[in-house]
Design brief:
Arc Repressor Mutant, subunit A; two-stranded antiparallel sheet; 2 strands; WH-like_DNA-bd_sf; Tscrpt_reg_TrmB_N; Putative DNA binding protein
């Protein structure tokens, strides 16, 4: 958060990375998935030109942060595949506001605790 506070006009992506504690490749995965809703790991890996295992880890992290959801789709020939969906940007923004508000409340409490 400290680094972000030193920037006059931080980009939305940098704010997102800071608030959620994610890396730039994860932010890139979120925004690409937002454009390609319902993609599989393989489809995203091809589109992002990244290894499937790396994309899978990014999706797991984004899912833990509440930014990505997945659904299981049954295949006609048997088996299944997971399709991933990025939560709408307004939902991500709301989660960011909540996280920043929690952080600010904690900081205010610490400030109030300080004294002789």
């Amino acid at each position: 958060m400290e680094t972000l506070m030193l920037v006059d006009s931080p980009e939305f992506e940098r704010i997102m990375e800071c608030v959620f504690g994610i890396q730039s490749h994860e932010t890139r995965t979120y925004f690409r998935l937002f454009e390609l809703q319902g993609s599989t790991v393989s489809e995203l890996a091809t589109d992002l030109e990244r290894d499937r295992s790396n994309v899978n880890r990014s999706l797991s992290t984004l899912s833990e942060k509440g930014l990505v959801e997945r659904e299981r789709r049954l295949l006609d020939g048997g088996g299944y595949v997971y399709q991933y969906y990025a939560v709408p940007v307004p939902d991500a923004q709301e989660r960011m506001h909540e996280a920043v508000d929690e952080w600010a409340e904690t900081v205010h409490e610490r400030i109030d605790e300080f004294g002789p």
